[in-house]
Amino acid sequence: MKEAQRYLITSALPYANGPIHIGHLAGAYLPADIYVRWLRSIGKDVIFICGTDEHGVPITIKAKNENKTPQEIVDRYYKIINNSFAEFGISFDIFSRTSNKIHHQTSSDFFTKLNEKGIFTEKETEQYYDEQENQFLADRYITGTCPKCNNNRAYGDQCEKCGSSLSPDELINPISALSGKPPILKKTKNWFLPLDKIQNEFLNEYINSKKDWKPNVIGQCKSWLNEGLQARAMTRDLDWGVKVPLPKAQNKVLYVWFDAPIGYISATKELLPDTWEKYWKDPETQLVHFIGKDNIVFHCIIFPAMLHSHGDLILPSQVPANEFLNLEGEKLSTSRNHAIWLNEYLEDFKGKQDELRYVLTSIAPETKDSDFTWKDFQARVNNELCSIVGNFVNRVLVLSHKYFKGIIVHYDISNASDKIILTEIKKNQIEISKLIGEFKFREAQSELINIIRAGNKYITDNEPWHLIKTDEKRVGEILHTCLLITHGFAESALPFLPFTANKIFDLLNTPSKQSIKSGTQLGSPVLLFEKIEDSQIDLQIEKLKQKSNVKIVDVVKEKAETNNEIKPNISFDDFIKNDIRIATIIEAEKVENTDKLMKLKLDTGVDIRTVVSGISHCYLPEEIIGKQVCLLANLEPRKIKGIESKGMILMTENNEGKLVFVSSTDKAMNGATVR
Fold it and tell me: What is the architecture, at CATH level 2, of domain 6-111+257-322?
C-alpha cells in the first residue's frame, strides 16, 4: 500500500445484540488496534472509527424473545461492548451508534443522492410473508437449508457455516423465524442496487487492481464476480431502522447492509464535524477496513459499489480480512453460548488484558482458521510472557538495584558485543515495523519476542553476576545495554502489549521516544506477568462445558493420538511402487482465483515439471524458490484449475497447524531416490 497523507481505519460494526467474544477480537478489532497504534507511534495522521450496528434483524429477534423494545436491547449492549473495548485497550477515536440522529440523517442523504442520480431500480417482487404474524420477513427472519453446504440452519442472507452470502429464495424449505411456519410469497416494491451493472462498469476493474490484497480476500471477491452479481434490494419492509426517505416508501427501512457501512461516515462526522471531508473525500487518504471473512462481500463489493455510485467519496485501499477463530476445536457459536465473552474474561482475569492480546495475536487467523484453547493460552502466557519477557525485565532491574542502587550509570557504547546486540535489536525493530505495515501481525509479534530472546542470551553470555567481583565498570555497561534492550522492546511492544509497554516505561522512568539517561532512578523490580494456574484453566474449561454443552478435549493430545494411529500394513511390493525423489523448486506462483493453490516448477534431476500444491496460504512464492522437497514423482497426472500437475510434494504440519516441507536435512542431488 502506497504512502498516504492520512489514514482512516475502521473495524466492523458489531451487532448490539450481545457482548463481544474473542472471535470478534481476533478477526477485526485487535489487528486494527495494533495497526492504528503503530501508525500513531510513527507519527501518522490516523483516526480509528467504529460503533455498534443497531438495526440488524438479530436485534429485533432478541427484543421479541425478551419482550423488550429494540432500543432497550441496543442500549444495554452498547454499554457492555463500549466498556469492554475501553478496558481491553482498543483505542478507538470514536465508538458511535447507528441509532444516533447523525447516522440516520447521513444514511438518508446517501440514499437520496443515489436515488436522485437514478442509480436505484424500483421493482415489484415477491417477498416472503408470515401470514400468522402479518408481516414481511427480513432475510434474517427466514431460516432454511443452505443450497451450497446443506446446513439446515442457514439464514436468508447468509450461511454462517460455509460463509456463503444468500438470498431468501435460494434457501431450501424456508421457515419463518417468527412463527416457525413456512412463509408465503407476497408482492411488494423495493429499491434495488444494480450490482450486475456496477460490476461491469466498475467492480471488475476495481478488484483486479488490488494486487496487494490478501489472497483469501481477493479469492472470495473473484469467486463472487465470476458467478456474476445480481441486483440486490437496498430497502426492507420493517419498522426498525433508518426510514427510507421517500413518500411512497412508507413502512420501509434501509437494508442493514446499506446503512451499516455508512456508519463509518456518520461516526467520522460525529468525531470531526468540521474536517470529516478530508478523511472521506481526499484521495490522499487511505481507507482500511478490518473485518472477518464473513463480511468480505459487503466491504469489498457492496460498499465500494455504493461509494462509487455516490461519486464523491474515496474507496477502500485495503481490506485485510481475517479467517475464523474456533474455540476448543469447535466453531464459535453465540446461539449455543460456545464463546469466551470479553466482558467475562476481563472480570475473571483482572489486569490481564495483554495476556489475551498476546495469545490472540500469536494464533491470529490471518490466512486460515485457527483454534483457541485454554491450555494453549496458559502455556503461551507461562512459557513466553512470564518465562521469557517477564523474567528478562525483572532480572535486569533486580541486578541494577543490587549493584547500582537502581541508578542508571554513565555509559559510552564502545564494547564490540554491546554494539552488535544493539544493532541486532535495531534490525528487529525495523522488521517489526515492516511486518505490521504488511498486516503480518503474527510474524511481527514473534519478531518482538526475539528482542527479549536476544537480550536473555546477551546477559547470560556476559554473566554480570560473576564480573561484579572484578570489573564493576563492565557490569554497568552490560546492565545499561540490557536497559536499552528493554526500552527498545517496550517501544516496539506498544501496539501489541500497550499495558505492559507502559509499565516498562514507568519502571525505566523513561518515556517512549526518549533515550535512557545516566543518573535516572529506576523503579522497584516487579513481575510483569503472573503464571496462570491449572485451577484457573480447569475452572474456565468447566464453565465453557456447562454453558455451551460442548465436549472439550485436550486438542494437542487428541491430535497427537490421532497422528499416532498407524494405518493398516501394506506389502513391500506396494511400498516400492512409490517413486519418491528429491526435487528443487525453481519457480513458484499463486494460482489465480484460488485461496491455497500454488503452481510450482520443479527440477527433478530427470526433467522440469509442473506441480500444483495447496500451500499458498502458508508460503509466499518468493520464499520457497530454491527449496528442496520430496516429490511423489509417479503419481498419475491430473488437471487442477486447468493446469496439468505431474506429481505431489510431501508435506506435514507443525504444532501450529502450518504446512511444512518434508525434505532432506542435508543438500541432496536432484533426482535422488528417497528409500
Answer: 3-Layer(aba) Sandwich (3.40)
